[in-house]
Known about the structure:
alpha+beta
Amino acid sequence: MKKKRRLRKLTGCVFLVFLLCTALARQFEMLLLPKVLTAASGAGTVTHQSTYPATAEGFKVSWIIDKAEYEYYKDTRKAELTWICADGREREERFKITHKKENTDGTWTFMLNAKKISKEGVGGLFGTLSVCLENEVSYPYTLPLSALSMDADGYMVFAVQTKQGLFSDVQTVTKIPLRVLDQDSHTAAVSSGWAERVVTYTSRPLAEGMRVVTADGS
């Protein structure tokens, strides 16, 4: 009986040591894996903003945009006018765009009327002029721009996939090719979305099938 009890105790100690060693080995392994931050694809907007030099005839202000940018701003109804007042100070005010005309070379002339200007220094309209156009385009699938990478075939993202392991879940990354429809300085509109979360930051270069640790708890 005593031998059996000793054997059970020894077996229990060996099992505890095994569990402890396994836990320590896993912790060491986790320290070596790349740390990543992730985000999900979802509906969002891409913002376009462009500034153009303008000219004035009285209170009528006009500027020219090219054919490609017209596609972004063809539905824009207001523009922000910036001018230098007679006292040398810069002024800004938003006005309704009153006219859009296609030119023979494919460019477009936009026009606004600044007669209802509310700030002091109307004479400054004959100084330096510029206008700023801004437009937001909505898309069903957008991602942070930092999620995009490029390979020989074009744009791609790394998506994090989770599988059940022997002792805990295992996270790996897989490449997903995609088509970028539009982008600004922060956001990219893409052709489709995924159930997986995509990598927006990694502590080390990634490769297909590599194991990772998500630092944001996702």
